[in-house]
Automatic annotation (TrEMBL):
Function: Catalyzes the interconversion of methylthioribose-1-phosphate (MTR-1-P) into methylthioribulose-1-phosphate (MTRu-1-P).
Keywords: Amino-acid biosynthesis, Isomerase, Methionine biosynthesis
Site, Transition state stabilizer: residue positions: C164
Pfam families listed in its UniProt record: IF-2B (PF01008)
GO molecular function: S-methyl-5-thioribose-1-phosphate isomerase activity
Catalyzed reaction equations: 5-(methylsulfanyl)-alpha-D-ribose 1-phosphate = 5-(methylsulfanyl)-D-ribulose 1-phosphate
EC number(s) stated in the UniProt entry for this protein: 5.3.1.23
Taxonomic source organism: Ruegeria atlantica
Gene name as annotated: mtnA
Residues annotated for substrate binding in this entry: R53, G54, A55, R90, Q203, N253, K254
Protein name as it appears in the record: Methylthioribose-1-phosphate isomerase
Taxonomy, superkingdom: Bacteria
Family: Belongs to the EIF-2B alpha/beta/delta subunits family. MtnA subfamily.
Residues annotated as catalytic: D243
Pathway involvement of the protein, from the record: Amino-acid biosynthesis; L-methionine biosynthesis via salvage pathway; L-methionine from S-methyl-5-thio-alpha-D-ribose 1-phosphate: step 1/6
């Protein structure tokens, strides 16, 4: 997607310079910064400390981190150490393990001298595949928006609600939940997007920044406004992303997603989840019981980042001094609350059978 008219991916290999560059998302939406990752420790810090975030982008970043390490030391011991360091950064998003396992499968059978070159090409493949997957998600999600638009009075916008940032900043490009929005806007369908702030890190501000860059009308709302808007008929469709989806269609996403699904069900609003297939964990069935939920630093709850009157970016405490914050980063929405799953292969019901029909080659070896 574009930033002030210039196309960017969230991560890219600057091959002439021999370095990986990322958009450092810690400073957005207040400051747009591009930084270079040069060491395994920097790749790990980028994932752990959310310089990059979003399940697909985390996976791509890990693959580039493996490539960087293989350029320094292509031994099996070096790979195993890099795998462990990267895998320990964030436990919930399944794309991280998926990308690391894919690197292991591709690189370990090779002679050590051949691993670095293959690692770089594989990381690029993973990044390019993510772009194509998300573009396909957008095309399938577009059909849902078209159907709603066709039933509305001429000129009235389709009103969407999304939670957190499942945009191009959370992937390599296009985004997951936002991809149908970009496709619909580009097709000339009027939209109005309600953007949840998504405490504690206010990642909805990233979605707001993205949509603004693309010219999509939107309004930034507090997390607890969504149910009220649904009660008053002001939401036609909810679309969120996911960090891990089980084999039966339970969805693990940013904290607060479950409450949106409950409100949508109570008010008859369709609730869809956009997911690339690498976010499906075919080894897990019961999301509530089996998915590990990352507990992050309480300072993310007790403090907020913003810009002061002098234009300085700073953290400000919003709680009494000494107050402890609880910070579970994700929750699980059971499949019974999910209207459908938007994947690169089409839209399915949120069930083991629905996913198996779209991905028979993956589901057959597990629970279905």
């Amino acid at each position: 997607m574009k930033v002030q008219g210039t196309h960017y991916r969230s991560i890219w290999w600057d091959k002439p310079a021999g370095v990986v560059r990322i958009i450092d998302q810690r400073w957005l939406p207040h400051d747009f910064r591009v930084v270079t990752l040069k060491t395994l420790d920097e790749f790990a810090a980028a994932i752990r400390d959310m310089w990059v975030r979003g399940a697909p982008l985390i996976g791509a970043t890990a693959a580039f981190g493996i490539a960087e390490q293989m350029s320094r030391d292509s031994s099996e011991a070096s790979f195993d150490a890099a795998y462990d360091v990267l895998h320990a950064t964030r436990p919930t998003a399944i794309n991280l393990r998926w990308a690391l396992d894919r690197c292991r499968e591709a690189l370990m059978p090779l002679a050590p001298g051949d691993r670095a070159e293959r690692a770089w090409s594989l990381a690029q493949e993973i990044a390019d595949e993510d772009v194509e997957i998300n573009a396909a998600i957008g095309r399938h999600g577009l059909e849902l928006i078209k159907d709603i638009a066709a039933r509305k009075p001429a000129g009235e916008p389709v009103r969407l609600l999304t939670h957190c940032n499942a945009g191009w900043l959370a992937t390599v490009d296009w985004g997951t939940a936002t991809s149908p929005m970009y496709h619909a806007h580009d097709a000339g369908i009027p939209l109005q997007v309600w953007v949840d702030e998504t405490r504690p890190r206010n990642q909805g501000a990233l979605t707001s920044w993205e949509l603004g860059e693309h010219g999509i009308p939107h309004r930034y709302i507090v997390d607890n406004a969504g149910g009220h808007l649904m009660q008053h008929g002001l939401v036609d469709l909810v679309i969120t992303g996911t960090d891990r989806t089980t084999a039966q269609g339970d969805v693990c996403n940013k904290i607060g997603t479950y409450l949106k699904a409950l409100a949508a069900r109570d008010n008859g609003v369709p609730f869809y989840v956009a997911l690339p297939s690498p976010t499906i964990d075919w080894t897990v069935r019961d999301g509530v019981a089996e998915i590990p939920i990352e507990e992050r630093d309480s300072m993310e709850v007790t403090h907020v980042m913003g810009v002061d009157g002098q234009g300085n970016i700073s953290d400000v405490r919003v709680t009494p001094d000494g107050t402890e914050g609880g910070n579970p980063a994700f929750d699980v929405t059971p499949n019974r609350l999910v209207t459908g799953l938007i994947t690169e292969r089409g839209v399915s019901e949120a069930s083991a059978d629905g996913l198996a029909r779209l991905f028979p080659e993956r589901a057959g070896s597990h629970f279905v």
